[in-house]
TrEMBL record:
Upper classification of the organism: Bacteria, Pseudomonadati, Pseudomonadota, Betaproteobacteria, Burkholderiales
SUPFAM superfamilies: Acyl-CoA N-acyltransferases (Nat)
Source species, domain of life: Bacteria
Domain N-acetyltransferase: 14-145
Protein name per the record: GNAT family N-acetyltransferase
């Protein structure tokens, strides 16, 4: 994927980029720390997560207004996380542009499985091929949704 490419014609001034140097950790933290899925997440945790992931940022006139983060081995698996668009930039196709950039990214071709969790954006993700789990009885998780608000790290058991 090009380091930066413009979005659809109906979204003037918007670009997306997977260039790690363009991803603004402070901007991501400002949104994520108030999101329903990562409320109170420490800045250092966001910074570490971004540096260990493939990120697609959305930019309006050079300022980061959205993010999609993929935890991936770039060969067989990816987990899509921390997708957001700032409220004042929603409804302009920005999230769709990030999802299309993710689907087109050369390092994400040929993956066997891609997962995500969402509370309210099923329609968006369905447009890009996501479906309910084929075999939910095979999937397991350790889920600690309050880990940042209780100030701890993941427990071993």
């Amino acid at each position: 994927m090009d380091a930066s490419k413009p979005v659809a014609q109906d979204s003037p001034g918007y670009t997306v980029s997977s260039d790690p140097a363009r991803i603004d950790a402070k901007a991501a933290h400002a949104f994520l720390s108030r999101s329903y899925w990562a409320q109170s997440i420490p800045y250092e945790t966001v910074e570490r997560a971004l540096s260990n992931s493939l990120c697609i940022g959305a930019f309006h006139e050079g300022t980061q207004v959205g993010l999609a983060r993929l935890v991936t081995d770039r060969a067989t698996f990816a987990y899509l996380a921390d997708v957001y668009v700032l409220e004042e930039h929603r409804g302009r196709g920005v999230s769709k542009m990030m999802m299309q950039a993710m689907r087109d990214h050369p390092e994400l071709q040929g993956l066997r499985r891609m997962l995500l969790a969402t509370r309210d954006a099923h329609g968006l993700y369905a447009q890009f091929g996501f479906k309910p789990l084929m075999a939910p009885d095979r999937m397991m998780e350790i889920n600690q949704p309050d880990i940042y608000t209780r100030g701890g790290r993941a427990s071993a058991g």
